[in-house]
Amino acid sequence: PSSNAIGLHFYPIWEAASLDEWLYNGGPYQLVIFHFLTGVFCYLGREWELSYRLGMRPWICLAFSAPVAAATAVFLIYPIGQGSFSDGMPLGISGTFNFMIVFQAEHNILMHPF
Fold first, then answer.
1. 112 pLDDT exceeds 70?
2. Which residues lie closer than 8 Å to 50 by C-beta, 6 or more apart?
3. What's the pTM?
4. Number of folded domains in the chain?
5. Do the domain assignments include residue 112?
6. Per the record, what is one GO cellular component (predicted)?
């Protein structure tokens, strides 16, 4: 099976028949992305909690939520919309630039700027 075979299913290590199958089908990508997003969401919650307990206005949490929304969009929302986590942004520099090129090519972004 290709790495696209996993689709949108949650794929923990214990669900695979072997470690090789889990590695081949994109298990590490889901593991890293879910842990990253969980950590970032918890960090934002902690920022809000500290500002609340210290009697400050929670604008810093609001300011830092924009990059969190962007990361959530490219790592979680876009793959769900496309139907597979293999369509999510890769975790490397060259993969990121490839994602940007493929994204604009598949969705015709440059031809319709408005």
1. no
2. 56
3. 0.70
4. 1
5. no
6. photosystem II
- Domain range for 62: 3-107
Pick the closest to residue 86 from 47, 29, 10, 48 (CA basis).
29
Secondary structure string (H, E, C) spanning the chain: CCHHHHCCCCCCHHHCCCHHHHHHCCHHHHHHHHHHHHHHHHHHHHHHHHHHHCCCCCHHHHHCHHHHHHHHHHHHHHHHHHCCHHHCCCCCHHHHHHHHHHHHHHHCCCCCCC
In this prediction, residues 53-78 reach a mean pLDDT of 86
User: Are 91 and 19 in contact, with CB atoms under 8 Å apart?
Assistant: no
CB atoms under 10 Å from CB of 79, counted, come to 20
> Which residue type is seen at 12?
P
